[in-house]
């Protein structure tokens, strides 16, 4: 089973496979973090500037994917290396 697409291999529709690719999942998690920061700023839990910065930097293309992959190998946890 591919480490990059463990869930995708069981799907018949190859168009769906990209949704389950590891990088797509990582970006989706970053999107959730950005949305959470926005919601927290709206209720005054965090400063607006912090939410804006989190949203600005929640792009997988800004991450060193080799380090994220190494963190995944070390921790065995998909989200911890991104955090």
Summary?
Helices cover 55% and strands 0% of the residues. The chain has four helices and no strands. Helix 2 (22-42) packs antiparallel against helix 3 (48-57).
Shape: globular
Total helical segments: 4
| Rg, Cα atoms, Å | 15 Å
Beta-strand proportion? under 5%
Largest sheet, in brief, is: none
Number of strands: 0
Average pLDDT: 85
Give the helices and strands as they follow along the chain: HHHH
- Indicate the percent of residues in helices: 55-70%
Helix and strand content put the structural class at mainly alpha
Low-confidence stretches: none
Distance between the termini: 26 Å
Describe the structure.
The structure is a single chain. The protein is mostly helical. The chain has helices at residues 14-17, 22-42, 48-57, 65-75. It is globular, with a radius of gyration of 15 Å. The model has no long low-confidence stretch (mean pLDDT 85).
Please tag this protein with its features.
83 residues, 0% strand, mainly alpha
Write the layout of secondary structure elements.
Layout: H1 14-17, H2 22-42, H3 48-57, H4 65-75
């Amino acid at each position: 089973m591919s480490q990059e697409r463990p869930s995708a291999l069981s799907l018949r529709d190859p168009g769906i496979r990209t949704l389950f690719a590891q990088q797509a999942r990582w970006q989706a998690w970053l999107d959730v973090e950005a949305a959470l920061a926005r919601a927290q700023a709206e209720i005054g839990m965090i400063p607006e500037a912090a939410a804006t910065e989190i949203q600005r930097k929640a792009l997988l293309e800004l991450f060193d994917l080799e380090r994220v992959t190494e963190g995944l190998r070390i921790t065995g946890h998909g989200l911890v290396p991104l955090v």
